[in-house]
Specification:
Layout lengths: L2 E8 L3 H12 L4 E5 L6 H4 L3 E2 L9 H24 L6 E3 L2 E5 L2 H21 L7 E3 L2 H7 L8 E5 L3 E3 L1 H14 L3 E4 L2 E7 L2 E7 L4 E9 L9 H4 L5 E12 L9 E3 L5 E5 L3 E5 L3 E2 L9 H14 L7 E13 L5 E4 L6 E5 L5 H16 L17
Parallel strand pairs: 1-2, 1-12, 2-9, 5-14, 12-20
Antiparallel strand pairs: 3-8, 4-8, 5-7, 6-7, 10-11, 11-12, 13-16, 13-17, 13-18, 15-16, 19-20
Family: Belongs to the DadA oxidoreductase family.
GO molecular function: oxidoreductase activity
Organism: Halopelagius fulvigenes
C-alpha cells in the first residue's frame, strides 16, 4: 500500500525541520525525509542572531533578517510549551571589538549603520548599545586582546543549530509529524502537478505538495522541477574549544570580520568560520582553513592560547547566486516549493523562512511577502 501525505519535506536541517513543524502544528499531514548528509550547515553553524549589528549593507536582506530574528521571541516560548527538551537558544549579547587600526576605522561606520537601523526598524532599542573601554571589554570576555574600540549590544542571541532542530522535530512529532531517514530519488510531476516522491529505497509516497529544503544539495532536483536552482556549497570550518574558566554569560565576540567567537555555558567557545566559495561538496577540514581560524582566535583573544580543541566541524552552506534565500512555489509546477539558499545565515533566517513557506503550502498568504525571494528571479 502506498503511503500518502498532504506534504513531503525533503531535507531536515533547520529550514526543513521548521517547514515540517509549522505544517504539522497547523494540522497538515506531513512527512519529513532526511538523509542527514555529512557537512550539513545546521550541524556546524554558530547561530549568531544579531542582524542590527551586521556590516552587511543589503537592506532587503537586513529587513528580512530583523523580522526573522524577531520571530524567535514567539517561536521559543511555543517550543518550550510543546516539547520537553532543550532548544539551545539564549540571549547573550554581542561584543563588537576593534583590535587593530583597520578595524577601528570600520568601527564608526558600523555604529552609524546601527543607528540608521534603529531609525528604520526600531532595533536595536535605545540603551541596548554601550561603548566600552578596553578594560570593560575584557571584563566581559576575559581572553580578549587589548581593544582600540568596543561596544556591547544587549539584545543579540545565539542558538545551537543541532539542538534547535531537534526541538522543532520533537514539537512536530507532538503535532503528528512523521519522519523517515533516507533520501528522495525523484520528485514525481505529472501534467504540471506534483504527485509525490520516490524514495531512495524505491518506495513511492503520494503527496500534493513537496518542499525541497535540501540545503547545499537542493539543486539536485533542478531537472525534475524544470527550473534552475542556483545554489552552491560554501564551506565553513569552525572549531570548538574547551576553556578552563566559567564561560556562563560570556557574550558573542565579533571583530568586524566574518569571524566570531560564541561561548556556551559548558566551558566551550566556538570560533570560526571560513567562507570558502568554490570548495565544492568537500565536507572536511583543511590545514589552511584551520590555520585561518586559529590565527584569528589568537589575534582577537590571545587568552585562549591554552584552550584545548574539543572538536572541529564543517558546514556546507547553501549559498545562492545573489546571497538571498530561495523561497516559495516553483513556477509551472503546482505543489512544488523551495526553501533553501540561506548561505551562512541559515540559523538566523531558517525558522522564520520555514514558517512562511509552510503558510504558502497551506494556501495562506505568508505574513511576509516571499515573492522577492522566488526562484523565478534568476
Amino acid at each position: 500500500m502506498t503511503d500518502r501525505y498532504d506534504a513531503v519535506v525533503v531535507g531536515g536541517g533547520i529550514v526543513g525541520s521548521s517547514v515540517a513543524y509549522h505544517l504539522a502544528r497547523e494540522g497538515t499531514d506531513a512527512l519529513l525525509v532526511d538523509r542527514r548528509d555529512e557537512g550539513r550547515a545546521t550541524d556546524a553553524g554558530a547561530g549568531i542572531l544579531s542582524p542590527a549589528t551586521t556590516s552587511r549593507d543589503d537592506e532587503t536582506w537586513v529587513r528580512f533578517a530583523v523580522e526573522a530574528v524577531a520571530y524567535y521571541d514567539e517561536l521559543v516560548p511555543a517550543l518550550e510549551a510543546e516539547q520537553d527538551g532543550p532548544h539551545g537558544y539564549a540571549e547573550r549579547g554581542l561584543l563588537a571589538v576593534a583590535v587593530n587600526g583597520a578595524e577601528a576605522d570600520a568601527y564608526d561606520e558600523t555604529l552609524e549603520l546601527v543607528r540608521e537601523r534603529r531609525a528604520e526598524y526600531g532595533t536595536p532599542a535605545p540603551g541596548t548599545i554601550r561603548e566600552l573601554d578596553s578594560e570593560e571589554a575584557k571584563a566581559r570576555f576575559p581572553p580578549l586582546a587589548e581593544t582600540k574600540r568596543a561596544f556591547h549590544y544587549d539584545d543579540a542571541a545565539r542558538v545551537d543549530g543541532r539542538t534547535f532542530e531537534a526541538a522543532l522535530r520533537r514539537a512536530g512529532r507532538a503535532h503528528g509529524l512523521t519522519e523517515r531517514e533516507g533520501g528522495v530519488a525523484e520528485i514525481l510531476v505529472e501534467g504540471g502537478d506534483v504527485r509525490g516522491v520516490t524514495l531512495a529505497d524505491g518506495e513511492t509516497v503520494e503527496a500534493e505538495n513537496v518542499i525541497v529544503a535540501g540545503g547545499a544539495w537542493s539543486a539536485a532536483f533542478e531537472s525534475q522541477l524544470g527550473v534552475e536552482v542556483p545554489v552552491e556549497p560554501q564551506r565553513g570550518q569552525i572549531v570548538h574549544l574547551d576553556v578552563d574558566e566559567d564561560t556562563e554569560g560570556w557574550p558573542i565576540v565579533s571583530p568586524f570580520r566574518s569571524h566570531y567567537m560564541v561561548s556556551w555555558d559548558d566551558g566551550r567557545v566556538a570560533a570560526g568560520a571560513t567562507r570558502e566559495t568554490g570548495a565544492g561538496f568537500a565536507p572536511h577540514t583543511t590545514v589552511a582553513g584551520l590555520r585561518e581560524v586559529f590565527d584569528e582566535v589568537l589575534r582577537v583573544a590571545p587568552g585562549l592560547s591554552d584552550a584545548s580543541l574539543r572538536t572541529s566541524r564543517v558546514g556546507l552552506r547553501p549559498l545562492s547566486e545573489d546571497g538571498h534565500p530561495v523561497l516559495g512555489e516553483v513556477p509551472g509546477v503546482a505543489g512544488a516549493y523551495l526553501a533553501t539558499g540561506h548561505g551562512p545565515t541559515g540559523l538566523q533566517l531558517g525558522p522564520y523562512s520555514g514558517k512562511l513557506v509552510a503558510q504558502a503550502v497551506r494556501g495562506e498568504t505568508p505574513e511576509t511577502d516571499v515573492s522577492q525571494f522566488g526562484v523565478g528571479r534568476f
